[in-house]
Amino acid sequence: MRKLLLIGLKDLKLVFRDKAALIFMLLAPFLLTLGLGFVTGQFGSSGGGIANIPVVLVDQDGGQLGTALVELFQSEDLSDLVTATVLDDPDAARQQVNDDLVAAAVIIPDGFTESIIPAEGQMEPGETVQLVIYGNPTRPTSVGVVKTILEEFVARLEVGRVGGTVAITQLLTSGLVPPEQAQAIAVEMGQHQAESLAESNAITLTTNVASEAATDFNPLAYIAPGMALMFLMYTVSNGGRTLLVERNQGTLPRLLVSPTNSAQVLGGKIFGIYLTGVVQMLILIIASTLFFQLQWGDPLAVLALVLAAVFGACGWGMLITSLAKRPSQIAAIGSAIMLTFGILGGSFFSLSFAPGWIKWVSRITPNAWGLDGFNILALGGGLNLILEPIAGLLVMGVVLFAVSLVLFNRRGMALK
Amino acid sequence: MPAILEVKELVKKYGDFTAVKGVSFDIQEGEIFSLLGPNGAGKTTTISMLSTLYIPTGGDAAIGGHSVTKEPMAVRNIIGVVPQDLALYEDLTARENLVFWGQMYGLSGKTLNSRVDEVLEQIGLADRAKERVKAYSGGMKRRVNIGVGLLHKPRLLFMDEPTVGIDPQSRRAILDSVKDLNKQGMTVLYTTHYMEEAAELSDRVGIIDHGELIALGTQAELTRQVGENETLLLHIGEDEDAEALAKSLKGIPGVLQATATDHEVSVIAREAEEILAPVVTKANERGIKINSIDIREPNLEAVFLHLTGRALRD
Predict the structure, then answer these.
(1) A-chain residues within 8 Å CB-CB of B77?
(2) Do residues B97 and B144 lie in contact, with contact meaning Cβ atoms separated by under 8 Å?
(3) Of the residues A10, A201, B118, B145, which has the fewest C-beta atoms closer than 10 A?
């Protein structure tokens, strides 16, 4: 294990002494982010980016809270972010999602209001019912936004419900209100809460961390990870290239005649590539935070996503390496894949409006998964909302590493 | 002296091509043993199998009692390897290279640092240890390349043509360092296609050609194979037909062998001076201009010529 780490650290040191590699790894994505920020004319400003997410709402509840939720989605505050339409039939709404006409269907079930506000003649709220969100898997970012809005709505509702229950209980126990009036007060409080929820302009996309501050979506929060992920592909293919360069320059055979086995050597090289990718991503994240005032979101979730994204990308790097015979082949294939994945994976433009089949194909790229995750985090989502992108990236890495190892074994590390 | 290396019928095949054809020899502890042969003779392939990089197609070898095929890791702890081509990280300094390779040989902490310091002194680069290797001259890089092989004080050091492509001064320094290492007790297996190096360094020499070990012994034993014969070396013009001249010289009484290379004709005779006049006459008859003539005493070159009919440079 020690030798594996030493080989990896040696590779990290070598990469950071290679000026050409540093330009591609760090300077190019930083400058492209800067350039695209200026080109879009939205450098540092809010608004733009993800917009007009099509959502269909089905209000089976018909009560005050159901109406409040529909009004919230149709409110002026969210008009730039979502385009909400209302349908009566939940199946029709789901079909719209299946047909990729909308990003998500939100179904407000019958009894939703009564599960929060007691009905006439009742002291206690009715049976708990759940809001249903039927998400479009090809638009995970948009689904994440809708989810976040709903979570915020439910969270505020819960705070109001608990507060109301406590208040009425105290009024009753203190004898200030007779039991026969308590029910009327509860209903009145619920109605008031529903009105305030619908009218509220405080419904914003907030982070899951303790901070109460609202976070606007900055388009650079899309561009910066897009560029970082695209140039991550350069790093992993360049890392794979060094394996063949080491073979040609004789250092790999020299390693293999030292008391170091081939698994340690290969493991060390892979670790070096992984480490380089992680350091590259973290430097870009820190730099964009400092220079562009970008909010990437929950730091732990960002770190988890970076680790997963680099793992997935490393899988591609190793696959390319296991297929190539010469370093020049890797350089050529790596550049082609970097650009192709950049376009296909949404590094240059959002895939929200791309045809469905492109969205599906984009799932082979670490860029698409990574961007989904980074966008969710930038919009205020937490680790729980990026489990799917993380899982996608990890599965990608595992599958590609397995294929690469089979190919490496067949070729005996291309040495013997 | 016990044998530190025992090679038995070592074979390496690449498809239909056999690079090494059943080579067998021993090296005694404390010896400098040279494998002498032209380019492509199988020297590097042999060393690659002995250093556990390549798996032999047939045969085996034992180093310090450990089989290279069955116990490669034990073998790697005993041997040091100085490859023919530079195998260094040019963006690292000499010290960083030595530290990294020392770590790969299991050195750490104070032991590692003191060994790195010792080796830097030994290769004469202590004062430039913090410069990146890419800034070094070819000779300095060669010295670092050798230094890496010495870090863990191997019992047996493989040196694969360490003087190829360097200036005479650096070459001299490397040859001297090989002798010094041997004096300190290190056993050396040295491959070269330079007869002079093998002659200067070696206790024993194995001559290898086309993957076969065609002669083995001390220099005295080997040169006795060509007897007391001398070699007459004719240097002729670039446009002259060396082959035709060699063929015509074979008919001269006293000429035992005549072989042509690029612009030279080697003639082996019992007494070179006796055949000098008829050789010159024959060249004049054919209109071939001789630029210069050397007479050489029996040596390893002559042995190779005697055994193969070709010069070492072929």
Answers:
(1) 259
(2) yes
(3) A201
- Quote the pLDDT of residue B6: 93
Q: Which helix (H) or strand (E) holds B144?
A: helix B138-150
**And the tokens for B5?**
């290396």
Percent over 70 (pLDDT), chain B:
97
Summarize pLDDT for B179-224 with one digit per residue, the tens. 988 998 899 999 998 888 888 888 899 999 899 988 888 888 888 7
**Residues B308, B264 contacting (CB under 8 angstroms):** no
| pLDDT score recorded for residue B122 | 86
User: How many angstroms separate the CA atoms of A16 and A27, rounded?
Assistant: 13
Contact B175, B163 (CB under 8 A): yes
Cβ contact, residue pair B92, A13, below 8 Å: yes
Q: Where in chain A is the domain with CATH 3.40.1710?
A: 53-199
Are the C-beta atoms of residues B56 and B50 closer than 8 Å to each other?
no
Q: For residues B298 and B223, give the distance between their C-alpha atoms in angstroms, rounded to a whole number.
A: 6
CA distance A255 to chain B (A): 7
Task: Answer whether residue A222 shows pLDDT above 90.
Answer: no
Superfamily of domain B228-297 in the CATH hierarchy: YebC, transcriptional regulation domain (3.30.70.980)
pLDDT at B163 (0 to 100): 86
Written as six digits, the tokens of B92 are: 């690292």
The answer to whether A260 contacts B54, with C-beta atoms less than 8 Å apart, is no
Contact between B51 and B41 under an 8 Å Cβ cutoff? The reply is no
CA neighbor of A57 nearest in space, from A78, A81, A85: A85
| One-letter amino acid of A17 | R
Secondary structure tally for chain B: helices H, strands E = 11, 14
The residue of chain B with its CA nearest to that of A3 is: B104
A53-199: CATH, from 3.30.70, 3.40.720, 3.40.1710, 3.40.50: 3.40.1710
CA-closest candidate to residue B219, choices B194, B201, B193: B201
Task: Of A211, A208, A223, give the one whose Cα is nearest residue A379.
Answer: A208
B5: closest CA of chain A, how far (Å): 16
SS3 B209: strand
Burial bucket for residue A187 (CB in 10 Å: 0-12, 13-18, 19+): middle
Sheet holding A53-59, edge to edge: A82-87, A53-59, A104-108, A132-135
- Locate B17 and state its tokens: 């091509």
* Residue A258 pLDDT > 50: yes
Break chain B into its structural domains and give their ranges: 3-223, 228-297
Q: Are the C-beta atoms of residues A77 and A201 closer than 8 Å to each other?
A: yes
What is the C-alpha radius of gyration for chain A, rounded to an integer number of angstroms? 26
ipTM: 0.79
Decide: helix, strand or coil at residue B266.
strand
Shortest alpha-carbon distance between residue A400 and chain B (Å): 28
**Mean pLDDT over the full length of chain A:** 78
Q: Are strands B17-28 and B32-36 parallel, antiparallel or unpaired?
A: unpaired
Does domain B3-223 bear CATH number 3.40.50.300? yes
Residue A215 in contact with residue A206, Cβ under 8 Å?
A: yes
pLDDT of residue A201: 40
Least confident of A11-20, A304-313, A395-404: A11-20
- The SS3 of residue B12 is strand
Residue B2, Cβ neighbours under 10 Å: how many? 10
Contacts 24+ apart (CB under 8 A), A296-300: A296/A221, A296/A225, A296/A374, A296/A377, A296/A378, A297/A207, A297/A374, A297/A376, A297/A377, A297/A378, A297/A379, A297/A380, A297/A381, A297/A382, A298/A207, A298/A208, A298/A209, A298/A377, A298/A382, A298/A383, A300/A383
> A6–B103: do the CB atoms touch at under 8 Å?
yes
